[in-house]
């Protein structure tokens, strides 16, 4: 079998157009969605991500505010800046780019963001709402995976989904979203014994481990749907996922590539969450 390649870039573009239309509608009602992004220190990768988020805001007609703080900023100073943003009516979404310097308590920072402006979906209140199936901000990467599948016409109900990776940002919430949509979910991770025994059971295999080419053809059942969340660099410095694309794409029915797979969806869902927050602020 040769897999159909799920074009994340194209799907993201379509979604962004829909969001831009909604932004226009909100603006005509006097509300411009606004996202505040806080960048602490000078991590190169973080700066690139933040710049992309700002650019996308502008493309879609939203306001974006970048707040840069030096590496040595105190936790108190960061928390008081977040508190100001929590009360700023022009700001509908607050995102603190992670990772933070070691002297700052990440959990405390995440919990200081108003759950109503937590467009990352990282606040424990929003995670609890997600787990209980309530309306909330869903974490952007897992949400993006669900939208990719929906747009491709793939139903999740009753399918066996195996998630490899259990991070708070991707693996854990991805499994929960699949469960919410009536899939049967297995979580695997670095201490799972006989990983292949599990992954070969998957109708949908989600790879979120952060190791280049970790998932090979012998991890995958013939005809499985393979979602690659990895963003790695191989020995040659080339961008690659967690899945050995060339061999796995000969066995899977659908596969997401890296780049242009899950990646473009993450930022799109961040824009969606910011729009949602702005829309809810007038209701
Ligand atoms: N660092 C890497 N990914 C993310 C993300 O999705 N949100 C935030 N805030 N920081 C990140």
Quick structural summary:
With 283 residues, the chain is α/β, with parallel strands linked by helices. The protein has helices at residues 8-28, 44-59, 75-86, 106-112, 124-131, 140-152, 171-180, 195-199, 245-248, 263-281; strands at residues 4-5, 34-40, 63-69, 93-96, 160-164, 184-188, 204-207, 225-228, 232-233, 239-240, 254-255. The chain is globular and about 50 Å long.
Overview of this structure, please?
There is one protein chain. With 283 residues, this protein is an alpha/beta fold. Helix content is 41%, strand content 16%. It is built from ten helices and eleven strands. Helix 1 (8-28) packs parallel to helix 10 (263-281) and helix 2 (44-59) packs across helix 10 (263-281). The radius of gyration is 19 Å and the shape is globular. The chain starts with a strand and ends with a helix. The protein binds guanine (GUN). Guanine is lined by residues 95-98, 120, 140, 169. It holds the Pfam family THF_DHG_CYH.
List keywords for this structure.
283 residues; Rossmann fold; six-stranded parallel sheet; globular; methenyltetrahydrofolate cyclohydrolase activity
